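User: Fold this; C-alpha cells only.

Assistant: Input:
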Amino acid sequence: MFNFKIGFRPLNLPLRHTFTISRWSRDTAANVLVELEADGITGLGEAAPNARYNESQESCMAWLGAFDLSALKNPFDVEAVLRAMDATGPGDYSAKVALEMALYDWIGKKLQVPLYDLWNAQSRFGPQTCFTVGIDATEKLPDRVREAARYPVLKIKLGTDRDEEIINTIRSVTDKPIWVDANEGWKTLDRAKQMVSFLADQNVQMIEQPMPSSMKQELAQLKAYSPVITMADESFTGRESVEELAACFHGINIKLMKTGSIRRALQMIHGGRRAGLNIMIGCMIESSLANTAAALVSLWCDYADLDGHLLISEDPYVGLQFDEDLKVYLPEKSGLGVELRS
C-alpha cells in the first residue's frame, strides 16, 4: 500500500494576446497544478476549469482538498479510483481529470514506461494540429494569421455579427484550410444555414458547435443541410447518447476537462466510432502538461486541436511536440513525459 500525498496550487497562465470567443474574453487562464506523490515519485496533472461548466479555479481546488486519498490504496486500479471520484457527485470534471492525469503519470514513472506504450498505442504520433485565432478587431486579424504561418490549418473563432467580415479578412491573407468554431454563437437555424452556405465556398473543412447545445432539432436539420462537417463541442461532455449526437453532428470534439477522465475519453472514442462519428481531440487554454495528456488521447483520433499551450506567453512545461508536418507526437519518457521547463 502506498501513502499518497496530494499538493495543488493555482497555475495562472498569461496569454500572448487577449483571447476572445463568442461568450467571453480573457488575458489569463486560471488553471490548477496537481502533484501526487508516493514512494519518492511525483505524478503531475493540470486542471483547466471553465465557467461554461460551472467550474472555477477555486471550486477545483476545493474538490481536490476534499477528495479522500484512501481511494488510492491500490493506485493501479484506476477504475476503482474513478468510481470513488464519481461518488463525490457530478461536476468538478477538470479537477477529476487532473487527479487521474497525475495518477497515470505516477504509474508510468513507477513502471518506467511511457503511457503510450502502457496503452499499446500503434505509434507515438497523432494527427496534425490546427492553430486557433480568436475573435479580434478586423485590422488585427492579418497579423494574427501571419503569426500562425507555420500551421497548415487555422481554426477561426466566430459567433459574432461580423463573421463574414472576419472570414473575408482571413481570406485576404491566406488560402490555407480553415476550421471554424462558433461556440454556440448562431442563435437561429436560418443564421446557421446562411453561414454554412457562405463558409462552404471559403475552403472551410469543419464547423464546431454552430448553435446552442439545447437546439437539438435545429442542429439535426443543419447536419442534413450542411456540406461541411459539423462537430459537437459544447453539446458533448461525454455523458450524452452518442446515437443522439450522431443525429445532430458529423463528429465529436473530446476535451478532457469536460469528460473528467482520460480512460473514459478512450472509451468514448470507441463508442463514437461505432456510431459513425468523426473524432477530434481538443483542449482548453492549458500548459503543455494537460495538452500532453490530450496528445496521448490524440493517438486514437482523426483530428487534433492541441494548441492551448501555444496561446500562453510562458509555458512552464515541456511535453508534446510537433513534427515538420505539424503532427503531434509524444516524448519518449516515462509517464506523460512532461518536464518542468528549465
